[in-house]
Structures are given as C-alpha cells and as structure tokens.
Amino acid sequence: MNGRRTFLRGFLSVLLSGGAIGGILKILPSKADAREAPPKGQKWYGFGVSVDKCIGCARCMDACKTENNVPREPFFFRTWVERYIIRKNGATTVKAIEPNVEPSPETASDKSILRSFFVPKLCNQCASPACVQVCPVGATFQTKDGVVLVNEKTCIGCRYCIQACPYGARYLHPVTHTADKCTFCYHRISQGLLPACVEVCPTQARIFGDLNAAASPMSRFLRMNKIHVLKPGLNTEPKVYYASLDGEVR
Amino acid sequence: MNPELIRNLHDLLPQIQGYIYPNEIEIHWGLLIVVYPYITGVVAGAFILASLVKVFNVTEVQPLYRLSLLTALAYLLVAPMALVSHLGHPGRFYEILLTPNTSSAMAMFGFVYAWYLMGVLLLEIWFVHRTDMIEWAEHETGVMRFIHRTLALYSRDTGEVAVSFDHKALKVITIVGIPSAFLLHGYVGFIFGSIKANPWWSSVLIPIVFLFSAIVSGIALVILLYMILTPLTGGKISMRCVDKAVDFLFYAVIVDFSLELVDFIHRVYQSEEEIKILSEMVMSKLFASLIIIQVLLGMLVPLLLISLTKIFKKRFHLNEDLRKMVYFVAVILIQFGIFATRWNVVIGGQMFSKSFRGLTTYKMEFGGLEGLLYAIFLLALPIIILAVLTKILPPWKEMHGQPASESAEAAGS
Amino acid sequence: MGKLFEKFPDPLARLIVVFLAFLVVGVIVVAVVIPKQMMDVSAQWADAVKREEARPIKYAGFHVCAECHDKIYETKKNGYHRDLSCETCHGPAKAHTDDPDKVKPVIPAERTFCPQCHAYNPSRPRGFPQINPVAHNPLKPCASCHNPHDPKPPTTPKECSACHGAIARMKAVSHHVQLACTTCHEVPQRHKVSPWSVKPTKPQTREFCGKCHAKDGKDKMAKDAPKIDLAEHGEKYVCWQCHYPHSPEVEQ
Q1: Do residues B382 and B217 lie in contact, with contact meaning Cβ atoms separated by under 8 Å?
Q2: How far apart are CA B359 and CA B278, in angstroms?
C-alpha cells in the first residue's frame, strides 16, 4: 500500500515537473512582489541610459560589433540607437541611426520639429525574462548575477525567444544559426571591465554597474534621476533603466 | 554566413514601412511554421470526426471513420518534420526531449505529440484493425501476410472476450482521445497565444480559435478525400453520410467564424495602443490573405453555399450531383481558407514591428528548407503516406458502405 | 505467455508486452546510452558561462592606456574630453597593449571623424558643442585648431559664457543672438567672485519683455521684433512661462 502511494506521488511529481502544469506552478507568484532580491554581496548587474546625454554618435554600436564579432550587416544588432523626431503636428518619426555614415549636416531651419532626441537600445536583461520562459531546451538562461545568456552549444535555433522578446533585442546569428543578443559584454564585466558600449560612450549616456553596490555610478544614477523602463506593462522587469525617457519611446 | 539571406534582407530594406527595430526585418517563422499548425489542425479535426462515430454514435458518418483515423495518422507523422526542418540546427532536435524547459509551451510539444501518437492514435487504429488484420492474414501470402501478422502483434484471438475488450478499449481511447486532440491543437494555439510581446497573437481566444478552425479543416479534408477516393475505388458516395458530415462542418464553420468575429470586435472596441499598426497591416499587407481568402472565400462563400443547399432543400435533394458539386467546392474553399488563417496568424504576427511603428514584408523563398517547394512537398507527403496506409489497412469496404467486418459494425452501433 | 497474462484479454496482454519492451529500451537508452552531461541543464549553463567569460577582449579599457601614455593622460584629464575613453576615438586597443610595437591603434585625422559627434544635429542635446562641417573652416583638419586631447573653443570665452556655456551656445543660434546677457540680467561684480551667494537679477514682470515686444514698445532697436498686445496676450502668465528667452520659438 505504502509502496503504491510513493509510486503514485512520484508519478504525479514527474507528471507535474514534466508537464505544462509544472511551468504554470512555477510562474504563479505567491506574493504580489514574489521576486526575491538577490542576496547582499551577490552581484546583480544593471544598466543606465541618460537619454538627455546621448548625442547619437554611434560609437557604441560600432564598438559592440567589434567587441562581440556581430556581423556588420545592418540586420543584426546587440545594441542600436534610435532617433526620434516629434513634430508640432504630432507626427513622430523614428529611425535607427547607421554607424560610420558620414553625417549629413542638418541646419536649425526645420521649425516643424517640436522635440527630438536619441535613445540607445539594448537587451533589457529582464529580471523576469520572457525569452528564458519560452526557450524549449533551456539554452537561454539567467546567470546568478542577472545577465541573460544564450548557450550556443544547445540552442536549436527555433527562434521562439526572438518572438517572445518585446524589445526586438534578439536575432538569429547568421553564422552560428543560434539566437544571439547583448550579454552586457559578459567576458569584460567578469574581469572588472565595462561593457564595450559603456567604455566608448563619450558623454556617459550609458552607465553600467552592480545594482547592489552602495556607491557606484550606477546607484548614483538611480538615486539622482527619475527612472523609467521600456514596456513596464509586460512585467518583464527590465534592468536597463532610462532617465528622461520620452513617452513616445516604445 | 549565408550570402543569399543577406541579399534577401537587403532587398527587403526599401520595402519597410515606418520604423521597425533593426533586428526585426527578418521574418523568422516562415512558410514551414504556417504548414505546421495547418497539419496538426487536420489531425485534430479528423480525429474529432472519427470520435463522432464512436462516442456520439453518429452512425451516418460511419463510412468516414477509418479514413479519418488514417488521415489523422498520415498528417501527424508529417507534423514534426515541418518543425524540425525550420530549426537553425535540425540536428539538435533531441535537446527538446533531453532538457525540456518546463515553463516553455514549445518544450511540451514532444510529450503532447508522443502521447497523442502512441497513447491515442496508434492504439485506436490498432484496436480497430486487430480482428481485420487477423482475418486478412489468413487469406494472404508473402509480405502482406507478414506485415499484417506483425502489426497484429501475432495475435490470433478473435474470441468473444478479446473482441469485446477491443470495443471497450476503443470507447475509452476515444473518450481520452477527444481532450487529447483538443490538447494537441489547443497547445499549438497556446504557443502563439502566450506570447505577451505580440498583441496579434496574445489572446486567450487563440487556442480556441485554433481548435475550431482545426475541426473545420479536418472534417472538410476528410469529406474531400472521401468524395475523391470513393469513386476511384469503385464505390458509390453515400450522400446520407456526406450530408451529415457537411452538417457538422457547417456548425463548426459558424462557431469558428463567430469566435474570430468576437476576437476581432474585442480588439477593435478595446482599441489599445497597437490597434493602429494592426489595422494598417490588415488593410495593406494582409488584405488579400485575410479579408479575401480567409474570411470571404474560406468562410462566407462556403457558408453561403452550404446554406443554399439547406434553404432550397427540395431542389438540391432532387439533384444529388448538384449537391455534390456544391459540397466539393465548399470543402476545397475551406481548405484554402484555413491555410490562409494559419498564414495570417503566423506571418501576420511577424510583419508588424513590436515598436508598433512600422511593417516589414515576407519574401517567400522558392527552393531550400524554408522555401515553397519544400512546403508543397510537406503538404503532399501526408497524401502519399495515406496511400501507403490504405494499402496496409484498406478502409474501402467501410467507405463503400459495407460493414468492413463484424467487429466494426458492432463497434459502430 | 506466462500465467500472469492469462488473466488479461489477449490484445491487452500483447500491448503490455510491447509497452514494457518500449519502457525497458527507453530506460536503457536514458540511463546508459545518453551521456549525463546532455541531460544536465545546470552543468550546460556553467559551461556556457565559462565559454562566455573566455571570449577575447578587443577594447582594453582606459586605465591601461594611462600606464604608458601618461603625458597625454595628464593633458586629457582636465580638459573637456576628460570623460572620453581613449578607445572612443582610437578604436579597440587590446591588441596594441599586447604587442605595442606591432599593432598601432588608429589616429583619426580625417575631417569626417570629429563631426560624428560635433556636427549640428537637432536631435543632439542642447548645449552640446556643434558646428556645421560645411561652413566651419572648410578643408582644414580639425586638429589644426583644436587639440583633441584638450579641445578648447578657438576664441577666448566671453565673461558669461565661460560658465554658462550651454546658455550662450543656445542663444548664439537663436533670435536673441544680438542681445548681450546684460540687456536682461544685471550682474553684480561680486557674482564673479562668489557665484552662488550673489546672483544676477532676472526680469520680474511682463512689462520688461514688453519694452521690445509690446505693441507700443518704446525701444527703437527692436522695431522688427514680434509685437503683441500686453493687455490681451497671455492673460495672467509671465512671458517665460511659455517662451524660453534664451531660445525663443518663432511662429512660421
């Protein structure tokens, strides 16, 4: 009798852990904010973007492609910079700027512009990443310091994660045929260096650091600015924080 | 690096409307992923049709019973091919079985599929054909005898206990099978419906819409096959059977249409931030495939045609050939309509930017694993498999209205 | 068939045998044939993290440059480019630090390079130094007037703009370009000594702007300035609640 009960329990738990129900049970939060803060002393990386400081020079895009061997074609980006032009009639035009293109000088004569600015974009390294949730083989995962990585040895290239990312931060690498995305330059930050884009940003529009650190450029950034994240309604809890973000930015 | 891909993407650049995130230009789920839900839909639909006979005792459609089971099997065998071929690393498909991520809807595919294939479909087909295979083997020689003997697992017991067990088992399997068929295709809908980042997909209604469109496509396809195969094998089409099946098809189309309409009205009325880009997409890039093919030709015209046969009952009942003609056109239109439905969900969901500011374009390839030729091959393959299956397990007797064997008749009643 | 199976109907017994056979084969495959590593996700993740950490670095980071180029570092440290990393302009230099003689970083000398940051672009933040590369000393290399490691505007700054550069640059391209700061602000001498405790004045009333912009304004210099009726225009608001005096907007 006892043996059969243990068997039943084991069988049920196998069913649960192997079934979609297991996934659902894992997701259901027990409290309103169920996400546990990482323990003190554990690194928990975050990223800051000062929209007001970005000059759209595209040094970051260039450095990222160099540092991470991202294909140079304009269809694969781990980070990119969008230019917003909002006109007085309410029309908004957006363009991703192209690196290393000789800037065509613009004059101040375009009086129809209401406001205009640049917005750097990159993987938001969400605390609740939708991409990790949907990966069928567990090839994309969150490290204990909060960075979402892709294991290119087990990624099967199903591209479900690309569909699930609300920010368009992922692409299929045309050489490895696996999903690829910003890693916060994991090889650099694990040696105490800054991500390449932060390293080369001439205006400190990009800030990187440990969110758990008491005093750092990152924590100062969070303390001194009004902060917003992209698409907060999707509950992905991004760890790329924007200061002075315009409502038109999506 | 694939220079053809790069060239194609460069060709797409001038066709972008508005702003899309730079990584979004490539449509990642192409024609193969359109084919995949279409095929699993046929599986689920055909099985539901078969269970009408077994569970709901709709004896009129008995001639479709075995045909629909074999159709379901033939299509089910092809379904994973479409999925595996589209992977960036088809050779790594086994990862999904070795390290399945429990929170991923897609990871469950292997298990749902295996359960449905092994636990439901093969078992049901085996129990249906067991006594027949024993009987056939007795009058055969050579290879066919060997095949039937082996498939019957060398069983020779046609005694009362064994046969009545067959019937009991069939009943249980079908009852378990209906939710399983719902699960199979509802899960395909869930793969899309659970993507919160994509408002075109993200809807609780999507799995249900998928289910009913699956039932529509499955029933329509089995009717089509029946109407083509019966005369070819020297039988006479039973209009009593077709009429009844078309009845069910009619109701299924109405439910499917209403569900899609509800979804549509809901979206337009709620009018959330993505509504502008979605309506722009529907009115431009999806106009032909959504408005014309899916809704008009795939639903409204067949509904109208079938309604006509019901409204002018007298005239149509006098003329069986005319009725056959109308049914024939209707079920073919429905096939195209459902395929367009899959297209609009899969391709449509990737044509607008998640910035809600622009549209990209899908450029279909011709050759290659993602191309048109291969998709046509995948769509034709189930028919070939079905031809082989009917050689091994011929459903003709039942389709021609003669009791295939005593057991089948007993099971049907 | 053993005695056990005689209890079952024939079809069930046969299926159970097949099922058990599958089960046994399945268990053997899982337990013996498939390597453990292939089924252990956390081990795969640990490997992936190691692989990720081992990727080669291309950008060395600004600390490294200072070790050899200490003079340039000292120059740059106090200039406007103090926050720039060396590799922002000179490109990835890890290879150079590994083998300083063989690999040399680029020295961008073309006139197209500096405008990537400094060409005028209405999307750039206000106050960021920008020029029109077509009109600005055509054909002259940037470095002939500006030292990139310690760039300075070529003219000595006027008194106010030395500190209020952002405002001065904005005003320089606005319709108020002709107005001296002192037209609107009275600046006590003490302000230059202790800028926080003694502040310049700011206009307080609508009538102040009205000296130029009122319909009946007296100032002859401003006869072309846009005119409004102070009694009707803008109701209770003071002018600078709608208009920014350092860069007043212009109706078309």
Answers
A1: no
A2: 9
The pLDDT value given to residue B386: 96
> Is the residue at C249 inside a domain?
yes
Domain extents for chain B? 31-412
Over residues B371-398, mean pLDDT? 94
pTM above 0.80, yes or no: yes
Question: Taking CB atoms and an 8 Å limit, are A167 and B28 in contact across chains?
Answer: no
- The rounded mean pLDDT for chain A is 86
C13 lies in some domain: no
Smallest Cα distance from B308 to chain A, Å: 43
- The candidate with the shortest Cα–Cα distance to B182, out of B343, B64, B51, is B51
C246 neighbors C176 (Cβ within 8 angstroms): yes
Determine the pLDDT at residue C1.
47
* Closest alpha carbon within chain B to C22: B118
Question: Hey, are the CB atoms on B95 and A139 less than 8 Å from each other?
Answer: yes
Q: What are the domain boundaries of chain A?
A: 43-77+123-250
Residue A140 β-bridge partners: A150
- Residue C118 forms part of a structural domain: no
Searching chain C, which residue's CA lies closest to the CA of residue A151? Answer: C48
Q: Using a CB–CB cutoff of 8 Å, tell me whether B15 touches chain A.
A: no
Q: Which residue range(s) make up the domain with C191?
A: 178-252
pLDDT band at A164 (very low <50, low <70, confident <90, very high): very high
Given a cut of 90, whether residue B251 has pLDDT beyond it is yes
Q: Which of B111, B131, B155 is the best substitution to test chain C (most C C-beta atoms within 10 A)? A: B155
Task: Give A148→chain C minimum CA distance, Å.
Answer: 10
Torsion sign across C-alpha atoms C210, C212, C215, C220: positive
Tell me, yes or no, whether C40 lies in a domain: no
Chains with 3 or more CB pairs under 8 A to chain C: A, B
Give the CATH class of A43-77+123-250.
alpha beta
Average pLDDT across chain B, whole number: 90
* ipTM confidence score: 0.90
Q: B31-412 in CATH: which number?
A: 1.20.1630.10
Using an 8 Å CB-CB cutoff, list chain A residues near B195: 130, 134, 163-164
Among C10, C34, C40, beta carbon nearest to B155? C10
